[in-house]
Amino acid sequence: MCRIWENKKSTDISVAQLRKGLASSLFSEVEGIGFNGGEPTLRAELAELVDVVVDSLPKLKHVSLITNAYKYSQVIEKIQTIGPIIKKKNINFDVMISIDGYGEVHDRVRGRSGNFDNALKVIDFLQVYPLVDNIRIGCTVIRENVYHLPKLLEFCIKKGLYVKFRQGVPHQRLYTENLLDPYALTVEEKYEFVEFLEGLIKHYEKSIMQRFFYRSLIQQITNDGPRIAGCDWRHRGATITAKGELAYCAVQSKSLMRNIAEGDPNDAYFSNEVHLKEIIKTKCANCHHDYVGIPAKEHYRHIFIERIDEKFKIKAKIREIPGFNMLNNMRKKRTFNKNLNYYKSSLATFNILLNPNKKIKVLICGWYGTETLGDKAIIGGIIHSFKKCLDDDVQFIVVSLFEYITRITALQMPEFVHAKVVTPEEGISLIEKMDYVVFGGGPLMGIDTLAPMQAIFEIAKQKKIKTVIAGCGVGPYGEIWHNVSIKRILELADIRIYRDKRSKEYAAELGVNVINDSVAEDPAFTWLANSSVSTKIEKDSSEKKVLLLGLRDFPYEEYARHIPHRDRLTIKDNYEKTIVKSLIILSEKYPELIIKPLPMCTNHFGSDDRWFYRRLFRDCSELAEVIDDSLLGHEMAPVDYFNSFKSADALLAMRFHSLAFGLGIGVNSVALDYTLGKGKVRSLAEKYNTELISMIDLDEHRLIKAIVIALEAEKPNAISLNELHFTSSLNAELDKVSS
Q1: Topology classification of domain 4-181
Q2: CATH class of 546-712
Q3: For the residues 596-619, what does the mean pLDDT come to?
């Protein structure tokens, strides 16, 4: 936090000095000014300083004040004093309260107990005080609070407060330029922060400029890329320090003059252009500070178009023009083919060291880099099976669409020891060194990221590398070119093992010759059956029952494309209302019931389930005491979620692999068919005689009845599955292609 208090010999700028300094022509066009800290309400003469500002700046439209609200009585008193001064000129008055976590998290970050409660007192005052136009919360993200951001966001939403999140950075004006440890986020912490920002962009933030800043920050954190967000301090901002010094930005600028009252600030500002250019050249690209402003032309062009569309809904109107869909599909097909050709012609070489002690090299591609908990179990099962079949003498290379996500998976799973995580381009450069190229589980489905997968399989075939479809589903279908790509990948495979009979049938529908193809269990079952994963769970000795939820937002664009849009939304709305109503009734029937939402997906690519659960239960006070949200914090290792399944009495499953986990671990399960009878969930439920309820005609009576039966039944054994079923199928197929 701010360490300005350590600067004990500082002499603050006086009221008279501020008035004299602001008389400079440098400030004649200023429209906004912020009183920041330290803590500005500690200044005894704050009212006089504000009075000088509003009288001296003829173009002033906005005044903001940032406060930590710790000395809440004094803060309220100061706001009551300066409010009338600001409003006498009809100037907008904005107050931001710095809160860095909910409850004790904020107190811990700030190092003082009671700080959060004091902030609440100031918030309650501001929400009824008529002279403040806007109230905001500012959260600085550091190591201490990075895993606790969602609770603060939920608090702000319920209080009707806007909150902005910014990454803590070493800061010259706050005397923290040499304080590094609190800001040095670990790989896991960076991942969690980035995924939280992705959620803010999709579900919360309304400002286009702020969303753009979050997007810029994300690529800085994940890729060490240069800052693309704009910054007013590059061309139209200035800082006056507590001592009256003039500076460009507060983060990196040197003092341009000792005191704005001693000399001409205009001369100081423009005569130091070399210093400003040096900051822009050497510092701006790596700056994570939450300054905003007009970005470079190519980026601002997109922002401008987005703003116009937001106001006039131009894109929606264009979509209604006859022939739009045909033209749009032509554009999408062109883009897909362009990406396919890019990967097929990739000639880049990379210095990637492989393990010389491992004779066999296996490259696994698929939807990694966007992986769900199910995908993690899949790759764990595939690695396990290949090691069994090839005497453990294997090095694995995992192709990831977004490396930062798969690197977290690698840290969580012992199966990844000695495995390499690479980009698609890096994977392509390694193909000729491989013994096998594998599409590793999950569904071969109609999405644009088929392009690099098809390229990998085509290049492998050209180089005569053995190719494997390892326990995959097939579908849902996509556009014509997607389906052509699915068929092409399947036909390029020397070995095809499907995860269920329906997937084999879908492959046949595409025109693939499936006569000699195999069907085995989803590789996730192999991982679930692996004894090294299993741990003994001690059940709570109380009578409390645990209902685990494996739900997700209804992905109607993928699975309900065949029905009218209005009907899709009706199904979605009924689904959410029925779930909440049913759980309320169940909680009344079972007073000791614990309802535990479990996120199968914790990244934005697969629609992060944590955001869905928070929205679903946000306004439901009846369930507040029975919802256990302990799994909705930061992402955990797969084994931790495994243990949550193992300790549950019943499971309401929606995602395919939530049902697979329930069956593979042994939990009484009720499945919701969100694929509307078209695929994987129905196939799995019917195979193991699991209660299946369609979302088309979902109602609380049937749902409650099914869950009650599941809660009351004896805990079942895990499905009767030979742990090596997928392994034995793989082994048999490997023998065929080797002979």
Answers
A1: TIM Barrel (3.20.20)
A2: alpha beta
A3: 97
